[in-house]
Structure formats: C-alpha cells, structure tokens
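In this section we walk through a basic example: taking a raw amino acid sequence and producing a predicted 3D structure, encoded as discrete structure tokens. The instruction is simple. Fold the sequence below.
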Amino acid sequence: MLSRRNLLLASAAAFTLRGGSTMTSKERVDRVCKGADVDRPPFSLWHHFLDDQKPGEQHARSTLQFHEKFHTGLVKVMSDYQYPKSKAEWYSLREEKNPFPEQIRALELIRDGLHGNAYFVETLFNPWKVAENLSSVDEVRKTPT
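The resulting token sequence is shown next.
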C-alpha cells in the first residue's frame, strides 16, 4: 500500500527528474478544467501540521512550505484551530465577530504568499459537523426540551 509519505516523495522525485515545471499550479489547474494539455497532472492533499497552538503566521508558513516542497496543484488548507466552546446549547449560540483570528490570519498570509500562482481552499464543514464541533456529538443528538 502506498503511504502518503511515499506518494509525496515519489511526486517530488518525478518533479525533480522532469527538470521542473513549465506551468504554475494555477495555470495547470485552469488548463485541466478546460480539458487542455498540461506539463503534469495537478494533485492535492491535506496535511495536519498540528499548528493549533501556534500563531497564524506559523500555520501559513507550514502550509506554504508544504506546497513549495511538493508542488501541489491546489493548496488545501487544513486548519486545526479549535472551535470556540460555549456553555449554552449549540442551537442557541449567536454569531461571533471573528471566532478564528489565527486561522483567518493564516489564510490571509497563505493567499498573499501564493502571489496568485495557485488556488487554495479552506476546509468547510457541513452544519451538522459545525454543531458537533461547537458542542459535542452527544449534545447535538439530544432532543431539545
């Protein structure tokens, strides 16, 4: 079975042996979406850097270094910052202005660090998963009284 580590190493080796890339990640993804030829197939995967206790600058640096090292076609941001917990029931919570300041800072730095040469996406969870993250699986499954 091919591990993620071996896939990344093989991808990096293939990139190096081919003498580098002739396209930016963004150009490659755009061309694939149009059905045009590319210098190599784009790929992406996510990785947890376990930066959740570190400032957004570190998470951005980890993400950008990963992209630069493995030449991913799409930068998949996997933030590990914890959801804010509340003592209120999950269904009665109210909007917070910026519950993820370090994550937002990291996304801004990643955007700027890519210089428009690659697309990036942040993980977005469905509403059920968000409710679980804000409280717990058991709390979400309870019937409100």
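Looking at the output, two observations stand out. The first helix runs from residue 4 to 17. Residues 67 and 75 are 6 Å apart (CA to CA). In the next section we compare this with other chains.
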